[in-house]
Write a structure and sequence with these properties.
mainly beta, 5-stranded mixed β-sheet, 4-stranded antiparallel β-sheet, 36% strand, disordered N terminus
């Protein structure tokens, strides 16, 4: 059995560059795997992450040990048929979804398996949200037996999908990993986790073209110059508007001012009525 003692981080530029090149090679090649679709149980909206099943694998660094990395995949196994890094006695070829490796003198060696394809499932997470996950959403979880180091529970790898409209190529980051509690939690930011924007409202009725310019009678009191607001406004030339735009005349009858063909303004009528 291959044993590795945890010690101070071993961190080198060579190791970083190697992992960077692996990551660039991994993004994004669609390969066959499990059904990688999930629906929001509240809205019924469906999300399909099949195009993110990658070859050979994604990589992310431990937050506690700079010399430790995790190779992982979603909805499919990590592919390392030609990779001597991953000891088949530790990470089973074609079956492992998450494998921990250590950089030892610029050589990467497998140290633990955190997830198996046979236990992997994509579901909708509604539990307590880990740091960096803003809301309930898709999560791919896989396990590898019972933790024997300290925690009560399974050896477990979780990949939380977070909406990022700009992440056409997935962006990977570590939430947390714990050797003694046997878990690793990863964020995968992708535009595929975003809900489509709501449909645009239908266009309103077209605005009518402005009416002809002229003098138009407003409230039978005054003539204003400009485009005709609507056909109900009468007028035309200044003379035409003045001829029709006259305030009504009032006459006092039975101590009340009423409209009449003859008489005076309403103010004059009120003064004498």
């Amino acid at each position: 059995r291959f044993w590795i003692q945890r010690s101070l981080p071993i961190h080198t530029c060579v190791a970083e560059e190697m992992m960077r090149q692996v990551m660039l090679a991994a993004v994004v090649v669609g390969v066959s795997g499990q059904n990688c679709q999930v629906s929001n149980p509240t809205t019924g909206e469906s999300f399909d992450f099949s195009s993110l099943i990658t070859a050979p694998y994604y990589t992310v660094n431990s937050v506690h040990y700079a010399s430790y990395w995790f190779y992982f995949n979603i909805c499919g196994p990590i592919d390392y048929a030609n990779d001597p890094t991953l000891n088949p006695d530790i990470c089973v070829p074609g079956q492992s979804t998450c494998c921990e490796v250590q950089d030892i003198d610029n050589k990467f060696e497998a140290s633990a398996q955190y997830g198996m394809l046979s236990t992997g499932a994509l579901s909708w997470w509604t539990g307590e949200l880990p740091a960096g996950v803003p809301e309930a959403g898709p999560v791919y979880m896989s396990t590898n037996g019972t933790c024997t180091k300290g925690a009560l529970g399974n050896v477990e790898a979780s990949v939380f999908f977070v909406c990022d409209a700009n992440a056409v190529v997935p962006q990977i980051s570590m939430i947390n990993d714990d050797y003694w509690d046997c878990y690793v939690k990863i964020i995968l930011r992708t535009s595929l986790a975003c809900s489509p924007p709501p449909p645009a409202p239908p266009p309103g009725p077209p605005h009518p073209p402005p009416g002809p310019k002229g003098y138009w009678c407003v409230q039978n009191v005054t003539c204003l110059y400009g485009p005709q607001p609507s056909p109900k406004f009468k007028g035309g030339t200044e003379e035409q508007c003045a001829a029709i735009c006259q305030p009504p005349l009032y006459m006092c009858k039975a101590r009340q001012c009423v409209e009449s063909p003859t008489g005076g303004t309403l103010q004059e009528c009120n003064a004498v009525c």
